[in-house]
């Protein structure tokens, strides 16, 4: 008896860059519809998300009974984004969080005895909780799983308290949690608090308390310490996986036309963000490809003895640099945010990588959506082959 085939979807992290994923999903929906799939048919059995990708993942999972409708709901949000739907962008909000946080960062040695509660992060993302409550229909998760329309959903976060990477998963099936080096899994009812934790970009948004059994731990962005981003889908039973990235996985070398200048704070922060959001995914894709190649060279008698199984993989990632796109849209940010970010160099071209994660403005997100659509249609044959056409 053969192994039941299950298709997994991995949506990586990246703040506002996750708009690209929505363009890819819309194009996939259109391609499959043109091939005779019903718009309501959900092509994914297992959906896994990290950071902003976790929000997209849960939105899709809630509407696993109508994939086309789920994608359209995501489009409605991402095509009409303004930053004040995600974090406070008014002058008072920026003063209370960002200005005070930067002051502490700069002069903390003078202010270490300051008795007032210090700000927890650069930005106040209180508005995001309201958006998630309006955007998601979480009670539908149980019904779509009980009806067999979705096998499993997973959301990842990183525990500052324990130093571990945690995958929270929800399923109607009997799937035992797994433990790996610095990685654990916990079966749980996925809620808004898991998404706030998973998308809490370090330093930018505040940590969120989550309960690990009876123990409360403060958690942040799931891309941190995520050594194997594809692993949750495989543990949950995926035999083939579509990965949608939120940044170029193979950057070509840039010609150094101008004399290098000392990097701005934003440039350093953007480099760190790329390490958090992109590097582990690229390494995991390379690792899985090597395993698949090794397994393809083994005779059947050895394949029967190993627990490793080949996993079909399709990766769709941006064909353009998203920080270069962001540099064209920093003027669309509200004045208080733009002023604050300009102080650390994030509105300059060389520091735009940081802005690319925070630009929840429709001019930027719509351009990323269109890029995702173009990149996916350019790979139509790969998409059809992946889904068995």
Q: What is the CA–CA distance across the termini?
A: 24 Å
- Report the helical percentage: 40-55%
Low-confidence runs of at least 5 consecutive residues:
104-111
Tell me the major beta sheet. 10 strands, mixed
Secondary-structure element pattern, one letter each: EHEHHHHHEEEEHEEHEHHEHHHHH
What's the total count of β strands? 10
The helix-and-strand class reads: alpha/beta
Shape summary: globular
Number of helices: 15
Which percent band covers the strand fraction?
Answer: 5-15%
Radius of gyration: 21 Å
- Which whole number gives the mean pLDDT? 87
Explain how this protein is built.
With 389 residues, the chain is an alpha/beta fold. Helices cover 43% and strands 14% of the residues. Strands 1, 2, 3, 4, 5, 6, 7, 8, 9 and 10 form a ten-stranded mixed beta sheet that branches. Helix 4 packs parallel to helix 12. The relative contact order is 0.17. About 2% of the residues have low confidence.
Keywords, separated by commas or semicolons:
10 strands, 10-stranded mixed sheet, 389 residues, 43% helix
Give a short summary of the structure.
Helices cover 43% and strands 14% of the residues.
SSE layout and pairing:
Layout: E1 7-11, H1 19-34, E2 46-50, H2 52-62, H3 67-78, H4 91-111, H5 126-135, H6 140-146, E3 152-159, E4 165-171, E5 179-180, E6 183-187, H7 192-198, E7 208-212, E8 215-221, H8 231-235, E9 240-244, H9 265-296, H10 300-303, E10 312-316, H11 322-327, H12 335-342, H13 352-358, H14 362-377, H15 380-386
Parallel strand pairs: 1-2, 1-9, 2-3, 4-6, 9-10
Antiparallel strand pairs: 3-4, 3-8, 5-6, 7-8
